[in-house]
Amino acid sequence: MNQLAFIFDMDGVIVDSEPVYRIRNKDIFKKLGIEVDEDTQLNFIGGTAKKNGQY
Q1: pTM above 0.90, yes or no
Q2: Which of 3, 9, 18, 46 is the most buried (most CB within 10 A)?
Q3: What value does the mean pLDDT take over residues 6-35?
Q4: How far apart are the C-alpha atoms of 41 and 55, rounded to whole Å?
Q5: How far apart are CA 47 and CA 29, in angstroms?
Q6: What is d(CA 50, CA 8) in angstroms, rounded to the nearest whole number?
Q7: Which residues contact 43 (CB under 8 A, 6 or more apart)?
């Protein structure tokens, strides 16, 4: 029997990858000379583009 399955993980359901993204973003911002504080980054977690003022 052949079975095919897809798993869609909304961040934090199976794997919480948000801490890794924050570390990588911090590295990228530093290379670009951009300073983003921790509170600003935390504001974007779990938000939509509309909530975050991108629309």
Answers
A1: no
A2: 18
A3: 86
A4: 18
A5: 20
A6: 22
A7: 52
